[in-house]
Design goal:
The chain is mostly beta strands. It contains one helix and eleven strands; from the N terminus they run H-E-E-E-E-E-E-E-E-E-E-E. The strands form two sheets. It has an eight-stranded antiparallel β-barrel. Strands 1-11 form a two-stranded antiparallel ribbon. The protein starts with a helix and ends with a strand.
């Protein structure tokens, strides 16, 4: 009985202490729980710096005006056709500004002709290649680059005088030198890869061109070109920068 009494008193005492202890806990202010704050997410920014190599292809149109050696106009014609080639260069990026240099070489098949208004023959121009060496300045919107460029240009030409009978009267293979201005854009669609479109105008220096016999003679030829090309580039180097 004594043991039973002690057990009963103990149970009752514990029953009295539990509500008081619970009330004391509820009276205490809740302590804040400390957790690690989430780290800011890094924003990926495309980096245009590095060496790049690629290929291009498109359409060209060249205006060619011939004057006889005495200055008498013989007329003009457009030599049109396609081209395909490649480019290699290097770019530096500082902030959104992108600077670069580039060399480009293309095979071409641009042809055109017109009847000479001074003689009884046909003047024909064929451009089979051209090249560019240019400096570039651009503005980057992350992985979109808008740019302009300018520099030197060269074209490889075959000029022909053809009799109205269809026979070759004279021929001259000639290289013309001049300048180039261009504008375009590129889009970085994957790490290190970009695609783009470019328009370029080439203005060549007027040149005196001598022809073989039997036509013989010398003509002053003025030439310029409009080129529209799609481009694919691969860039060597890190594709992105991480900015917090």
């Amino acid at each position: 009985m004594k043991n039973l009494l002690l057990a009963t008193v103990s149970i009752v005492g514990l029953g009295a202490l539990v509500p008081a202890f619970g009330a004391d806990l509820t009276a205490q202010p809740a302590k804040p729980l400390y957790t690690n704050a989430p780290r800011p997410v890094a924003a990926a920014i495309y980096d245009w710096s590095g060496y790049n190599v690629g290929m291009n292809g498109g359409f060209g149109s060249s205006s060619n005006c011939w004057d006889s050696h005495g200055g008498k106009p013989e007329g003009c014609h457009d030599a049109t056709g396609g081209s395909v080639g490649g480019q290699i260069g290097y770019r530096w990026q500082t902030g959104p500004i992108v600077l670069g240099v580039e060399g480009q070489g293309n095979w071409a098949h641009l042809t055109g002709w017109n009847p000479s208004v001074a003689f009884l023959d046909i003047n024909q121009t064929k451009i089979d290649a051209f090249g560019l060496v240019t400096g570039q300045i651009g503005y980057a919107f992350d992985n979109v680059l808008l740019y302009a460029k300018g520099g030197a240009a060269v074209t490889s030409n075959t000029f022909r005088v053809i009799w109205t009978t269809g026979e070759l009267g004279g021929e001259s293979k000639h290289v013309l030198w001049g300048g180039a201005l261009a504008a375009g854009f590129e889009y970085g669609f994957a790490p290190n890869w970009s695609i783009g479109f470019e328009y370029a105008h080439l203005f060549m220096r007027p040149t005196m061109v001598g022809f073989t016999e039997p036509a013989g003679g010398v003509d002053r030829i003025r030439q310029d070109l409009d080129l529209m090309t799609a481009r694919l580039n691969y860039k060597f180097g890190g594709p992105i920068l991480l900015k917090y």
